[in-house]
């Protein structure tokens, strides 16, 4: 998020434009005063930040998020082997016939 800075005096004069910018351009405007500073953000961004703050206060949720992140990290770092069917070794017909004979012999015992 891009942060723009301005003074209270300038913010007062350009408030309508600043409100449009924080909503359209997803920027934050830091307003610097003599005694204190403030930040102007869109209502949507404010709600998102409030929700994230609320959710991150829950120890159970944080543990769940950590476990999920660890599992995803493990899944991404585990190599997978892709077998090309054209290059996969095929079983010989003789091996298949031998296996069938053994199965028949085992059934008759």
Automatic annotation (TrEMBL):
Recorded superkingdom: Bacteria
Signal peptide location: none
Basic residues composition-biased segments: 88-109
Pfam families hit by this protein: PhdYeFM_antitox
Region (Disordered): 70-109
InterPro entries documented for this protein: Antitoxin_Phd/YefM (IPR006442), YefM-like_sf (IPR036165)
Family statement: Belongs to the phD/YefM antitoxin family.
Functional summary from the UniProt entry: Antitoxin component of a type II toxin-antitoxin (TA) system.
Protein name in the entry: Antitoxin
């Amino acid at each position: 998020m891009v942060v723009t800075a301005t003074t209270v005096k300038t913010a007062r004069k350009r408030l309508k434009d600043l409100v449009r910018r924080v909503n359209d351009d997803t920027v934050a405007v830091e307003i610097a005063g003599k005694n204190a500073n403030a930040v102007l953000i869109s209502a949507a961004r404010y709600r998102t930040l409030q929700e994230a703050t609320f959710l991150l206060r829950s120890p159970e949720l944080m543990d769940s998020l950590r476990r999920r992140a660890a599992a995803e990290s493990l899944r991404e770092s585990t190599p997978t082997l892709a077998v090309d069917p054209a290059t996969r070794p095929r079983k010989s017909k003789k091996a298949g016939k031998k296996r069938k004979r053994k199965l028949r012999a085992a059934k008759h015992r």
